[in-house]
Amino acid sequence: MKTLTGKGFTPKTMQTKTIAPIATTKNRTKLVSFENSNSWLKRHDDQGTLLIQAGFRTNPSINCHSDDENPIVISGSQKRWYGAIACQGSHVRSFELSKIETARDHFSACLRFSDHQQELSVIAAHWDSTQFSDLQAALLGQYDVIRNGERIQTNVVEVVPVLEGLGTYQLIQPQLKAGATLLIEMGFATAETWVLNESGQLVDGKPLSQLGILQLVKQIADDPTVRNVLSSNNATSINLSLISRALQQDTLGRISGDQWTAIKHKYTTSFLKSFQGYIVAEFESQSQELVNVILTGGGAGLFQVVQPKINSVFTIPTDPQTASVRGSYYHQLAQTGA
């Protein structure tokens, strides 16, 4: 049994909130699941999962590399190059914009040629249920884009909003032990925490900005070695997207492998300790009822690489970075009886 531990825990009866049932998507041509993350854009459908690093360069050269995960998207007069390669240089960082503001453009980047001349029903994740109607308004309607040289015309006829992260619970619920669950979706700028009762009903939840990977990335960017090696020509800023991606790699720019390993271990160990301490304190009164503690999202994948012992503390799904977008898709597919 994986439970939170701490000093002075006392039981607390959980009051269940009434959640509106998920809308069905019967008789739709194509079902698509989409997460407009601050770090990685995620899409899942019957062709599998597409993962694109958020952030883009405007008006890229004709010689820049493009593929499914590094797409060049032309919409009207707007031309953008998304993906990990684009994020190596100067680019627009999506975590500086709202997810509603970027939803339509980011979904355009995730379109596939198989969407051409199709009607789409899109399951769209967002952390704030009060913005669900805004998310629907942003995504609904006609799309006419050129993605990596191929024209895609499609129509989003339905948007089914879901809370970000809960798809993971739906994905792994059969393997969980009977009892209440704390689910932590650890993203780039924020983390969402959801408490569910034994029946899987949402009890409580909220976003926590201090738990996002962005805080860890900023700490590393301020490290004297990182700043000294990566800054050139008196540059005052460090490419945060580069650090974010490098956290799961063995090198970072001109920093040696040994140096980078030591830096990662130092800051991730400290961040993980603070993370666990905050969770224990935040859910102290509920901890005796929490049977399952799930960690998912890009942050879970990061800690699995850097701190493998994390698996003894949390339940972590396979491919945690895309677990939620996959879970939402398969849950909705089951709801429709397709």
Explain what you see.
This protein has helices at residues 99-109, 132-139, 166-172, 213-221, 224-230, 240-246, 257-282, 298-306, 323-336, and strands at residues 30-36, 40-45, 48-53, 56-58, 72-75, 78-82, 119-126, 141-147, 150-163, 180-186, 191-196, 202-208, 290-296. The chain has a domain at 30-163: Nucleotidyltransferase, domain 5. The chain has 338 residues and is α+β, with helices and mostly antiparallel strands. The strands form two sheets. The protein has a nine-stranded mixed beta sheet with strand order 3-2-1-7-9-8-5-6-4, sandwiched between helices. Helix content is 29%, strand content 26%. Strand 2 and strand 3 (48-53) form a beta hairpin. Helix 1 (99-109) runs parallel beside helix 2 and helix 3 (166-172) packs across helix 9 (323-336). The model is unreliable at 1-27 (pLDDT under 50). The longest helix is centred in the C-terminal third of the chain and has 26 residues, at 257-282.
Brief description of this entry?
The protein has 338 residues and is an alpha+beta fold.
Distance between the termini: 35 Å
Helix content: 25-40%
SSE run? EEEEEEHEHEEHEEEHHHHEHH
The CATH topology of the domain at 30-163 corresponds to: Nucleotidyltransferase, domain 5
What's the level 1 CATH class of the domain at 30-163?
Alpha Beta
CATH architecture of the domain at 30-163: 2-Layer Sandwich
CATH superfamily of the domain at 30-163: ATPase, nucleotide binding domain
Biggest β-sheet strands, sense, barrel: 9 strands, mixed
Spatial shape: flat
Number of DSSP-assigned strands: 13
Which stretches are poorly predicted, pLDDT < 50 over at least 5 residues?
Answer: 1-27
DSSP helix count?
9
Strand content: 25-35%
Mean pLDDT: 85
Structural class: alpha+beta
Radius of gyration equals 20 Å
- Strand numbers in spatial order across the main sheet: 3-2-1-7-9-8-5-6-4
